[in-house]
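User: Okay, second chain of the day. Same drill as before: sequence in, structure tokens out.
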Amino acid sequence: MKEPITTIIVDDESLARRGLKIRLQEFDDITIVGECSNGRDALDMIIEKQPKLMFLDIQMPGLDGFDVVKGMQGDDMPMVVFVTAFDQYAVDAFNVHAVDYILKPVEEERLQQAVEKARAKQQEKGALSDKEKLLDLIGDITGKKPGNVDDLLNEHSEPKQQYSDKISIKDGSNVTIVKTQDINWIDAAGDYMCVHVGDNIHIMRITMKQLEAQLDPDVFQRVHRSTIVNLNQVKQVCSHMNGEYYLMLECGARLKMSRTFKDKVKHFL
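Assistant: Same drill. Structure tokens below.
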């Protein structure tokens, strides 16, 4: 029996959501756990339901589909299949690592292909989970808890860098200088770091460990395996019944603080 793929549907058209839901119910491993009509509700539902897959419309009032992807926290990101009536966004969709891009009206064969791609990607995530279990075992044996293989191999190998009030972000032949005080938060996306500065997102090819070493820990703290937050940008800390916390930032972002980093709450009190 296939492992269930918990799924949400995000589309501002109720008929589109209903039609897609009916067709997805034909797949025995797709479990619909929610649906919503706008991007803001989608971000809240991702935190609440933690779905593995999301069918996401692009053109919606308020936050569009790309805004939803930008607003998601790295480790909470479900797989994304864009469903839209417009084909001009295809390149942008795959640039944000979408699983698939389906045009409306959705053809049966294309939906089948999208689900198969999601299944394959889900198996890859399963392999990553096995790797994390292995690292936990290594931690139990050695008495240390490395976050990843690089942490284990490079421990003590990188000198402490002097903290600067600016970081340089290279984009092709251009270099953007960003003041660290202007950074809202940072999250990991594969081999890249997404630096959120106001409404802009700057992409850096650097590891989380390397970037964290450049930032003043009195200002920047890791609150999740894949998230660093500017403490000066936090305006509210909300507790959750499962022992986790959510941080509300001045920019409107809502970030999860995992139980592993719950001791960081003292920085906000």
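The chain has a mean pLDDT of 81.

User: Thanks, on to the next one.
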